[in-house]
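User: Sequence in, structure out. Go.
Assistant: Echoing your sequence, followed by the structure tokens.
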Amino acid sequence: MTGSLAHMHCDFTFAAAPTLEAAAAARRAVDLGFDGFFTAETSHDPFLPLVLAAREAPVLTLGTAIAVAFPRSPMVVAQTSRDLHDATDGKFILGLGTQIKPHIERRFSTPWSAPVPRLREYIEALRAIWSAFEGEEPLRFAGDHYQFSLLTPFFSPGPTRNGPIRVAIAGVGPGLSRLAGDVCDGFHIHPFHTVRYIDDVVLPNIAVGAERSGRTLDDVDRIVNVFVVTGHSDREISAMRETVKSQVAFYASTPSYRIILDTHGWDFGDELNRMSRQGRWAEMAALIPDEVVDEVAVVAPPEELGRRIQERYGDRIQRVGLYNLAPGGAVGDEELASIVAAIRG
């Protein structure tokens, strides 16, 4: 895997915004040259905005990046995904994530179990349900976590004309990377990442998983949201750098992301974790050196940003989103359109 220039899709990130804003955002995404429109499950539902986006911008690929799987029955997700799949003429990508134990148990009030085998079973259940929708075989799925054996014609949408529904998962570390290679169409690499982590952990493990299923790395699209630091003055760049430091400190304080620190030998994870448990969130960014931001984020002036993203990721990545760069933010619409065009190659 090299960093050579390659064609990438550039995706608009619609996150933490009310559903009714999605229509205007999707139209703007088309005007700016984006290829896709992805939602995140943070403070709003990830599926509802895609209904509006599908109507307003039918040329875009739409997807969740991500929806939390375990609090939702696979039957519920199978039906919602099928509706979005048909509404987009097959341009929908179902992105699923596991979240971490405290959120599953305390925010969603649902049981937690080992995430990798459970997510594998979840995807197998989804595909069994979709197969039953197609009339290919009766619904008969029995796993350790999910059992499905009833689907009458009244509750089935019937066959689709849009082919299989694509499934991508998100994750950090070898286990979920291998699972993506084994059973998924795509893998969402967490925004808190570095190129070394992608090369040393993500790509080799996707390849291992793919080999198990008689596939290759090229059968799995790698999708990433990128932290950027840009601006028109030293003051703007410094402010954005501090914002990224705060975000990095938040993620690095969580043991789930320790593998990224270990890949580089960064030793501030334990201290960040202690500070987070003490509620010292405002102080944590000070522990993140500028050198770490340079590894995690793409730092460049607006006129160079798209090219720098292309050079950094090359053929490692097929789809790129701009995590902290939105219309009306650090750059104007004309500049953002030029950045998108440069990323797309």
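User: And one key feature?
Assistant: The chain has a mean pLDDT of 95.
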